[in-house]
Write a structure and sequence with these properties.
Blueprint: H1 3-88
Length: about 90
Amino acid sequence: MSALQKLQEKIEQWKDNHEALKTQNNDLKSQLAGVATTQNDQDSRIEELQAELNKCAQKDETITALQRELTEKDDEIEKIIAQVEALLA
């Protein structure tokens, strides 16, 4: 085998390797784009969940305030009932 033939074979191998690397590069670019899309979707979902969590916290605060007010009203009613009973006695 002559030096020219060896050189031609090496060149062909390099071409094949180059094509394989280009294909791998394109595959990796596609995977990376998919990861970026997935990350954006996750970020959006996290923001949505945070907003829902904030709404729930506000509702919990409202419920707590209403329960406190209900307890106060119950106490007032009990006092009124006691006063009415005292007047009737």
